[in-house]
Amino acid sequence: MKQHLGTLLVVSGPSGSGKTTLCRRATENGLCVYSISCTTRQPRPGEVNGVDYHFLTPSEFAARVEKGDFLEYAEVHGNRYGTLKADILDLLEQGKTVVMDIDVQGAAQVRACREGILPLCYADVYIYVPQEELKNRLCGRQTDGDETISLRLRNAAQEDACLPQYQYCLVSSDREADYAAFSALIKCQSMRVGLMRE
């Protein structure tokens, strides 16, 4: 009886690309599971340890970095975030499709990991939004000032420069078309012959 390994799909794209929404919707529809990250930040009201995040103290996080437990990790706004290798490998062995919504630096760390079945199961997609469309989306949110929007657009241009490193590019148009393409990619990845083993 052949067993099918899972897929690790890394999803990147600039702020406003809709990558988090795509991942959440696909998870809610049962197409994939979200990896649970570790963080050193304090839990927000209603957040549950082991469900929303694995909440670690700064010293616990540092010890796990030292042991090489993280697939990727970064510091954001003074707090550290990371994804445990063991969690991902366990889900892949179970044949699950795991989505990771991370930036281009995090994606580079995961892509470089050669441990176990990770290289075999790895796939990535960049959500690309043309600059004018991205500007319209960021302005339409009405949550950021002009300076913040300009910074986000500059950051997006830098992230877009990493697009050639990705296997797939989803050119964003509208929410429904994006989701149709994203869900088709997940289904296609799950049928890869290379993921079948005795």
TrEMBL record:
One Gene Ontology term of the molecular function aspect: kinase activity
* InterPro entries reported for this sequence: GK/Ca_channel_bsu, Guanylate_kin-like_dom, Guanylate_kinase, Guanylate_kinase_CS
Q: What is its EC number?
A: 2.7.4.8
Keyword list (alphabetical) reads: ATP-binding, Kinase, Nucleotide-binding, Transferase
Q: Please give the Pfam families that the UniProt record associates with this protein.
A: Guanylate_kin
Q: NCBIfam families, alphabetically?
A: guanyl_kin (TIGR03263)
What is the name of the protein in this document?
Guanylate kinase
**SMART domains recorded for this chain?**
GuKc (SM00072)
TM region positions:
none
**Domain Guanylate kinase-like span(s) in chain numbering:** 6-187
Q: Where is the signal peptide?
A: none
EC main group: transferase
* Family of this protein: Belongs to the guanylate kinase family.
Recorded superkingdom: Bacteria
**Which species is the source of this protein?**
Akkermansia biwaensis
